[in-house]
Amino acid sequence: MKKALIVWGGWHGHEPKEVAGTFENALSEMGFSVEVSDTLDAFLDAEKLQSLDLIVPVWTMGTITKEQLKPVMSAVAGGVGLAGCHGGMCDAFRQSTDWQFMTGGQWVAHPGNDGVEYTVNIIAGSSEIVAGIEDFKVKSEQYYLHVDPAVKVLATTRFPTVDGPHVPNGEVDMPVLWTKYWGKGRVFYNSLGHHNDVIAAEPALTLMKRGFAWAAAGKEIARKEAAAR
User: Fold this and answer.
1) What backbone torsions phi and psi does residue 66 show, to the nearest 5 degrees?
2) How far apart are CA 70 and CA 54, in angstroms?
3) 3-class secondary structure, 127
4) Where are the domains of the chain?
5) pLDDT tens, residue by residue, 124-144
6) Rounded CA gap, 190 and 120, in Å?
């Protein structure tokens, strides 16, 4: 049985406890053994992290120590998957450039704030994660992120949707879903999820489930590669 760790906390406006509950239910339905923690000290046990298949951060605007961060980065580099959504993963630790390097991006703005209606444009054929899913509309925060050029983009959204100082730059397609690698580990991110009802709705939840499965599969691949040496 695959093992997952969900760590939630930080800014309560993103409903981290509720999102963690949604993810716990989803992962349990997928056959994972799931542990849920509300402290970043859950990251201190390096040996335990290495035994996992998946780490799911649900923590916005916090501070992570070097002692807490190093075991996570080492576990992911060794093959443990990392997957999350919205500010819970890519606005987790604003002062940690190492975290941002590993996850692939950092939130910087959401023009219009909550309640903006926008379209998520799926890049057909980009990944099994988005297979069979059509473009869909969302009414929520539209995330503007600074993004690692190494990520593989699976879906985008068009800016500008609302007025602001970014408008004179013209239209840009901002990544909404992406995958990347960190060492042997697989990383998946979904910028949706300002509140639990957004990420618990379809097709956002299906995208998360597929992202979890894709990220967690990297551990077994890393094991097989090591055994073949």
Assistant:
1) -60, -35
2) 16
3) coil
4) 3-228
5) 999 999 999 999 999 999 999
6) 11
Strands 144-147 and 105-109: antiparallel
Question: How does pLDDT run across 58-104, given as a tens digit for each residue?
Answer: 999 999 999 999 999 999 999 999 999 999 999 999 999 999 999 99
Measured on CA atoms in the order 50, 39, 198, 189, is the torsion positive or negative? negative
Burial of 108 per CB tally in 10 Å (0-12, 13-18, 19+) = exposed
List C-alpha distances in Å: 145 to 4, 80, 156, 157, 223: 27, 25, 11, 11, 33
Give the helix/strand (H/E) hosting 176: strand 172-182
Answer yes or no: are the C-beta atoms of 98 and 184 closer than 8 Å: no
Residues in the chain: 229
> pTM of the predicted model, to two decimals?
0.97
Domain spanning 3-228, CATH architecture:
3-Layer(aba) Sandwich (3.40)
